[in-house]
Amino acid sequence: MPQLSRRAFASALPLSLMGGSLLAGGLIGGAPALATTQAAAKTPVSVTPLAQIRIGRFTITALTDGYADMPYDYFPGRSADEVEKAAVAQFTARQSGVRFLFNQYLVEDGERRILIDAGAAGSIGQTGDLPKALGTLGLQPDQIDAVIVTHMHQDHMGGLILGGKNNYPNAEVYIDRRDVKHWTDPAKRSGAPDFLQTSFTMADEVVRLYPKLQAIDGEREIMRGVSIVDLTGHTPGHIGVRIEDDGKSLIMVSDMIFPVVHPAATDVFFLFEQDQAAAKAMRDRFFPQAAAEGALIAATHMPFPGLGRVVADRGQMRWEVADWALQT
Ligand SMILES: [Zn+2]
To answer: What spacing in Å lies between the alpha carbon of 245 and ligand 1's midpoint?
Structure first.
């Protein structure tokens, strides 16, 4: 994996990856005319998309914190040219790279509200919309009973922190013990590339701000019908969440699948994956299993609402978008 310095990473980042507030601040400070243009250009982003499905007694609402475009050379295992060609073939090519959504999922059964992941919260790209999305549902962060964080990358836990405080004061926070250990380990931190340092900083802060954080071991049930699935690979403690009731199920697989490159191949990675052998093993195991089961999947970075299935089509794995209309 390329060892990019912070400067190299920053200079390689398109402006849209540098965080919305930075960009808006710069433009508003320097040139009012440009600021107006920027505000107008941002208008469509302010629309809050929501999508809901029902799994037995659970209502699951897909929310999104925003998006960022990942340059074509962020996918080790393939050249930038190959990734761009794949994007062109899928009609999703953009000059700025592969568009990653940052989707979160709210699970409700009438008694408890569980949020799966908390978003990047402005730490990357055009993000920070999750609180507004919850607001659209009439919810404040203090009404969330639990947050399951699938792994400790900044785009999945950033929203746990707001202005140096815990943004979900009443929530039990669940994170796999292997990730808590890894991302709070000074030795791991000093050996990690600069672009992962934000995740290490956030992990320390999350542990400090959520003293009742529950480090979880293995595939345990969080509440009836909501259980942890071990998907180690993308990070040491990368987990999924299975929601199951009345013969139906949905599995939220987080960073198991990235747009454009997956699930067609498993020997292609995202820059943030430090252990490529483990990431490959995870996908080699999971994609055929998901295809055989016809499992309904929710994936963080796939186009909103991130719901679909892995299907085997004449020996080729591909992503099939799922119908997300609320069904009874
Ligand atoms: Zn991610």
So the answer is: 27
